[in-house]
Amino acid sequence: MPCVRLDRAQPKTAQEILPTMPLPIVIADDSLLARKVLTRALPPDWDVEISYATNGREALDHYRAGRASVMFLDLTMPDMTGYQVLDALQHEDLNTFVIVVSADVQPMAQQRVRALGAIAFLPKPVTPEALRPVLKEYGLHG
Predict the structure, then answer these.
(1) Domain chopping of the chain, boundaries
(2) Which of 10, 32, 78, 82 is deepest in the core (most CB within 10 A)?
């Protein structure tokens, strides 16, 4: 029987053992400019694979295809609003972190998206300084 040598060094973390894969995220906004601004606000060292959606239906399609561990969601979009997306995700067990990014900063809108499962509400235009603490709080980025 071969002898197995046990390494008594510090245990390795999952990140040290497993190959890292980019985190799939979706940026859902009907405005090309808003999608660009949000993309620029992401941490430059965040290993992500970005999919873009111009309406709520496309956002849900990305989610259902496994491309939305994190979803940045505008509320006012054609075809299907951000509220409708949140409602659909809630009925599908909301297996994603949703961060709402909207110009509608009324307290009622913020309360409503939280009740529908969003982890955060960021006003447009989103900045790296506003985004960083949210990502850190939920362990999405150091």
Answers:
(1) 21-137
(2) 82
Q: What is the pTM of this model?
A: 0.84
Fold of 21-137: Rossmann fold (3.40.50)
Is residue 89 within 8 Å of 117, Cβ to Cβ?
Answer: yes
Contact criterion met (CB below 8 Å) for 85 and 72: no
- Please give the average pLDDT of every successive group of 10 residues along the chain, which has 142 residues: 47 52 96 97 96 97 95 95 96 89 91 95 96 96 86
Q: Quote the tokens at residue 84.
A: 């409708």
